[in-house]
Amino acid sequence: MPSMSNTASFCFITAFAFFSKVLKNFMISRFQVSSSPAFDRGVRLAYRNSIMTSPLPSRPATAVLLAAGLGTRMKSSRPKAMQRLAGRPMLAHLIANAADVFDRLVVVIGPEMEDVAELAAPYPVVVQHERLGTAHAALQAEAYFGEGDVAVLYADNPLISAETLNRLLEERRSPDVGLALLAMRPKEPGRYGRVVAQDGNVDRIVEWADATPEERAIDLCNAGVLCADADTFRTWLKAVKNENAKGEYYLTDVVDLAVADGVRVRAVEAAEDELRGINSRVELAEAEAALQNRLRTKAMENGVTLVAPETVFLCADTELEPDVLVEPHVVFGPGVTVRSGAEIRAFSHLEGCEVQANALIGPYARLRPGADIGVGAHIGNFVEVKNTTVGDGAKANHLTYLGDADIGARTNVGAGTITCNYDGFFKHRTLIGDNVFVGSNAILVAPVSIGTNAMIAAGSTITKDVPENALAFGRSRQVSKPELGRHFKETLKARKENG
């Protein structure tokens, strides 16, 4: 246990380092005093001594998520933040990753965006009533900045990983760093703003229209995401002017204000696929492709076999356990879990369902929300399953609709079987016990139950409950007329030949 004298020394060193750093930044930013080498060395020495004895104190961090954009270039009535990537709204992707890093989240939306507000819950939402630019939007969330650090993120930048956000926050908390930003090196820099920097220290951001040929040759581009101390950020946001062609307050102007204040600005680089902005349907498709590649790679790294990865489409929440095999041209909608050893054959579509271990699905199968396929069960070609539990080892191999049903273990459902679950007003359930044999082309009119070990004759229409071990027939009696078939054919043939 440390002595009282050691504890007092540690507290003194830590306090001295903190207040020396504050004093230095205050003198530089408020009085434009140049820091001397001796002063810098003293601050660095005290700071280094303090962090050698204890880790940096944790600071709360707030993420402001800007989601007020209309998405005009999308030509959609849906807000841009609600456009979907891998089955999930763009804003939902950003919230999920930001929540892993930041202590607090606040979402800035536009007027009459109730669907965006609902998606953002339970995080607080503020409304930007006038769309006056990104700095103006961020300032609407000022009441939620709190203490610590604040980062401003964009709903149309939804693919930023938690790892990259952590690196941004760590860079901001590095000694003497007052502002950190995210930057990328896109394959086609185009009209992105260029980040003029040396060894990661940012001098300025130059918009493409204002850049010289030398500056346009720079491949380091601004991604727009900034992170700074809450109080300092608030001051810079309020100092941003709207002296531009659109009369808007731009968040990127904060960088110039920071540099003018003598604050050290650092760029944190990340991959283009993470930082790409999405403003059009074309860019949305490009982002979808990038995200799908990320999801496929993660699945295969976790032990999933994708026979033709580029043809398989996953959702952000798709759960595939190790040793799952997925054949080409399979689509996973939201809410799908597939357990180890299961096989999903080609051209199948799954949504809102769970497939247990060693089950076989497809080819050409459709599993809709509420489908739960048991261990080792088979759902074959052109079989549709909705809100139905299929027991372990049960089989429905061809041309069948199973809706609102419970199918027992080891039951065999023949080709062409239909559960008639809807009467035009209400849905009804079909209950089938274990070890039942349902013959081909059976019609099961719900509500109806079929007992364990029962058999249903092919072509039957079943409208009443079938007891255990029973054999049920529900079809018209067959009548055969001798020679009538030949006579009928000859009559029709003569009619055709005579015109």
UniProtKB/TrEMBL annotation:
EC number(s) given by UniProt: 2.7.7.23, 2.3.1.157
Protein's UniProt name: Bifunctional protein GlmU
Residues given in the record as acetyl-CoA binding sites: 415, 421-422, 440, 458, 475
Region (Pyrophosphorylase): 1-281
NCBIfam families for this protein: glmU (TIGR01173), PRK14353.1 (NF010933)
Cofactor needs: Mg(2+)
Region (Linker): 282-302
Gene3D superfamilies the record matches: Hexapeptide repeat proteins, Spore Coat Polysaccharide Biosynthesis Protein SpsA, Chain A
Self-association state and partner proteins as the record states: Homotrimer.
Pfam annotation, one family: Hexapep
Region (N-acetyltransferase): 303-499
